[in-house]
Amino acid sequence: MPSDRPFPIAFAVTPRFDVFYALYTVTNSAPSVLERWKVRAIMRLPRDFERVAKRVAPVPLFWPLLADALQRTPGEMTFDEIVSNLREMPVEDLKSNVLSGIFHDAATVRLLVGGKKNLRQVLVNDKSEGAELLTYFGLRPYDASSHAVRAMTMLLSHPETFRDELALVLERFWQTGFRRDWSALEPKMRAESFRMRDLEEELPLEELTRDLRLPVAFDANARELRPKSGAPIPYDRIDRCFIIPSAFNTRRWWAKYETKTGRVSLYFPVLRDATPANGIVADDWDMRASTAGPRSSINAESVFRALGDTTRYAIASILARTPTTSAELARSLRVSKPTITHHVQALRRAGLITDTPAGGSTKLSLSRETVAAVSEAAMEQLFSSTGDLPLVTTRKRRTS
To answer: Does 2 fall in a domain?
Structure first.
């Protein structure tokens, strides 16, 4: 980071915003630059998904709002960490985090969370701030039977239920396809993050802002950040600024979260190109799903045997975290390239390796799909009442 930066700038690759922005895209009927991805994503959703999702996000605009529920958890998060943090979040924090994005008035939020006022009293008050925004959220004009009012009533009166249903919707969306999408997108987002880091090292803050098309302006003379709406933020109030490559932030949303010390953390999910999401090749996944389900296509014995070797387990551990070439594996593990090739082939035969072209080389990744499905496959194959029992031991195979 250049020494003249008035506050730290960090780069993160995480689905903590994109999973919510992707849900906004699939639930929004308006045309989108992500239309090609959107059509595929909608086709793979369960039939009752829209009905279940509306219980926590009655209109699409609720999805970016619900991303703010995680504002007390800083930085980079995996999807499992997103869900875990939601499930463990104190209900008072959940209510405050969500409501503060709807009612941009701390006093109103405190009254609602503390039970001093109910939702109807706030919404029928013509003098309350943000009337136009309340209309976008479907909360104005007030209608007790509307999806939006019922969702917010559930948040206030039964926050544990709201929290559990939100986590359930996210998990279903992840499991029915977005996990595969993010697995394909993550290497591209990581490469984009590296490019952004290079820019950050080369450009003054004001030029970096313009190059990344951030929806704010940094004023070096006044030493403050100026959003398009709302009050400026003095540099000395900014704790950290996170820049996050995004594949779904078509609306250029950003977030400002207050820390425990009264300062603010800024998050800028940056979409520079819609190609990565639209270019996800889903045909391979669709073909696997249509020709054979996970249980019948995965040989649990082969997977366990492949991972039973300590070197192969080490390789799998590396590939689960970062797509890596065979040459990089050899250097990391300090073994010869032929040895790496031998072990990679064993993992590939078990269905544990996916390959992604990267320039003149090939990046290897651990197949999340195979790992996720192996438990179910093992249950079917071990407890099956039909079929031959695989009783040939390693010793017998070697002696034969």
So the answer is: no
